[in-house]
Amino acid sequence: xxxxxxxxxxxxxxxxxxxxxxxxxxxxxxxxxxxxxxxxxxxxxxxxxxxxxxxxxxxxxxxxxxxxxxxxxx
Length: 74
Hints:
This protein has helices spanning 2-14, 28-52, 55-73. By secondary structure, the chain is mainly α. The longest helix has 25 residues, at 28-52. It is elongated. The model has no long low-confidence stretch (mean pLDDT 78).
């Protein structure tokens, strides 16, 4: 039951219906809008994190992202 509540809160914060998260019946437009919203929120969080980090923290973050990109590519 807790997961239903959590999913409802996530949907509310992203301003999308809960049905957006459910299986194959999800229409492509909803999924694309959700992906754009999630991407926007994620980028805002990253920007905030980098603003608050010291130069060493920013460098570690960039290295971690580069490692993830390299792992996904190869």
